[in-house]
Amino acid sequence: MLKEERQQKILQILNEEHKVIASDLSKRLSVSEDTIRRDLKELDNRGLIKRVHSGALRIGPPVVDFSTRQHMFNEVKIKLAKKALSFIKEDMVLLIDGGTTNLHLVNQLPLTLKATVITNSPPIAMALTNHQHIDVIMIGGTLFKQSMVNLGIDTVESLSNMRADLYIMGIYKIDPYIGISVPSLSEALVKRKMASISSEILGMATSDKLSTVSNHIVCPTKDLTYLITENISPNIKKIYGSQQVVVVD
């Protein structure tokens, strides 16, 4: 098998199984582990996979700006958001950060809901202007235009004086072994702080984000209380269950 054919096969296996182990690939493709490691390194350098210890993960959806993501997978995101509504109760203090799925959720909140929403996302705050019974606390900072959220030390310090019943975390990449991750260190630090001040954490993730990893770890997946997703494999769902994460699919 030529190198190009072998690497294409690796990508195919990774797309189907979400994770590959170098020693297993060596047996399946009848080549040495050193050859597989070189293949994985080349594929990682080309931005096609994410190399991890002993193997590789799917790289997941590309990092694109907020306005572009607003037009992607909308039907699925709306479906996930509707499932999340049942976890939101009257008089809750909700902490909601950025993300287009989170925005879909906010757009579906009943106009009669009485709650407090803390957010660092201008689009989330704007979407709540017609909700007369929801108090909105806007967290300041430096606007990160790619994700349309405020970040920085001021953001983290403001959060230190707050407490939330439920944190609705925008999910970029998630893997049950590595955790929840994002491309930006500053965003990872803010999300980590948000998680630390919340009694429960809910994340919504389209299937293309499952078993993927980015550069900066926010927290382990066991910190999630609820994961709302779709098309999750029974084996991966079982892993989350062992971490005491309630998976809704």
TrEMBL record:
It comes from the Bacteria. PROSITE patterns: HTH_DEOR_1, HTH_DEOR_2. The keyword Plastid does not apply. Transmembrane segments: none annotated. It holds the Pfam family HTH_DeoR. GO terms for molecular function: DNA binding. Residues 3-58 form the HTH deoR-type domain. Keywords: DNA-binding, Repressor, Transcription, Transcription regulation. Repressor of the lactose catabolism operon. Galactose-6-phosphate is the inducer. This is Lactose phosphotransferase system repressor.
